Automatic annotation (TrEMBL):
Top-rank lineage group of the source organism: Bacteria
InterPro entries registered for this protein in UniProt: Bact_Sporulation_Assoc, Cell_wall-bd_2
Signal peptide positions (record): 1-46
Organism: Cellulosimicrobium cellulans (Arthrobacter luteus)
Protein name: Cell wall-binding repeat-containing protein
Keywords annotated in UniProt: Signal
Length: 375
């Protein structure tokens, strides 16, 4: 890796959509136990910062064979804006340069609603945009006008996206609806019922805690790539709630992957979910959020040309990126602000990743991540 050979390119990158995902795991009826198991434990105003690394040395001299191998010396780029809302727009523009039939909109202040909204947006073929509760940013309005959707789906109740913001959004598309329930778990069920109902049965779904975001950040992107829902549960409960078990049956889901260890989703919930699933339950968990991110992506991807990197220290960029990752599809790994874990880089080499796109500005992921400095 040559950290000093960064250069800026003005040519926008076009993400290539693949007709299928090469999967490491083969679906076999009744064999979830054989799946990759883990230990239990902007409008024009949105800036898109694109930087490429690994092309040549500072003096322009030709690099050796190892240095020119695109897998050993991948390039990096950055999608970023001045804040999380502009970054979401930059991600939307990169993924949907010619518009979109649908746009999902969720709160940029809370994480829970957007965890299920990302894969739902990918399933519908649209981006996920973020908004404050009480005001619609002009950059979001302009991006929706550019996308010219037939439908806008607002995720969350009026405490998440106010009636005033909803009214402003309603003026931007022929059709609008609100997917919400009395709490985050009910909202997740409504989002998934409306987005995926009638399209099943599904071999598998992802289940994540709705109490916190670290382990669940990669779930949305992975589910989007797999074309399946992310269903939120109360991870500290002693058993699964009846409404979630009923939803799994209505959607025809045969098995689930729980994202995170037993500290995120209890063994009691895991056991109870297994009582209504033909193929049972697998758990994708690592020693920390970064290893969990690698593990949950490994359940889907056996190869990938490109991958996304987002901070594991906050939720907004990874949530907006989930719809892009799901629509291409490609892995989305969460990483620290200052480096890329050795396990993540090793998985990238295994998959054949030749290009990493960072989500968010230098306050989220600094230039050491752009240089793919290992930690």
């Amino acid at each position: 890796m040559h950290p000093n050979c960064l250069r800026t390119t003005a040519t926008p990158h076009v993400f290539r959509r693949h007709p299928r995902v090469a999967r490491r795991l083969v679906a076999v009826a009744g064999a979830l136990a054989l799946l990759l198991a883990a230990p239990t434990a902007a409008s024009a105003g949105a800036a898109v910062d694109v930087r490429t690394t690994g092309a040549a040395g500072d003096d322009g001299a030709a690099l050796g064979p190892a240095d020119t191998d695109p897998v050993l010396n991948p390039t990096t780029a950055r999608l970023a804006g001045a804040d999380r809302y502009e970054t979401a727009v930059a991600i939307s523009r990169a993924g949907h340069p010619e518009g979109s039939p649908v746009v999902y909109v969720a709160s940029g202040v809370g994480f829970a609603d957007a965890l299920s909204a990302g894969p739902a947006a990918a399933h519908a073929g649209g981006p996920l945009l973020l908004t404050p509760s009480s005001a619609l940013p002009s950059v979001i309005r302009s991006e929706i006008e550019r996308l010219a959707p037939e439908q806008i789906v607002v995720v969350g109740g009026e405490g998440a996206v106010s009636a005033d913001v909803y009214a402003k959004l309603a003026a931007l598309a022929p059709d609008i609806r609100r997917d919400s329930g009395p709490d985050r778990y009910a909202t997740s069920r409504v989002v998934n019922e409306r987005a995926f109902g009638g399209d099943g049965p599904f071999t598998v779904s992802l289940v994540a805690t709705g109490r916190d975001y670290p382990d669940a950040l990669s779930a949305g992107a992975t589910a989007g790539a797999w074309g399946v829902p992310v269903i939120l549960v109360d991870g500290l409960a002693s058993r699964a709630d009846a409404e979630t078990k009923a939803l799994l049956q209505r959607l025809g889901i045969r098995g689930v992957h729980i994202v995170g260890g037993t500290g995120a989703v209890t063994a009691g919930v895991e056991k109870d979910l297994g009582t209504v699933l033909v193929d049972g339950v697998a758990r994708q968990a690592g020693r920390d959020r970064y290893e969990t991110s690698v593990r949950v992506n490994a359940a889907v991807f056996g190869s990938a040309d490109e991958a996304l990197l987002a901070t594991g220290g906050d939720f907004a960029d990874a949530l907006a990126g989930a719809a892009l990752a799901g629509s291409v599809p490609m892995p989305l790994w969460v990483v620290p602000k200052t480096c890329v874990p050795k396990l993540t880089l090793g998985e990238g080499r295994y998959l054949g990743v030749t290009r990493y796109t960072l989500l968010g500005g230098r306050g989220a992921l600094d230039d050491r991540v752009a240089s793919l400095d290992q930690c």
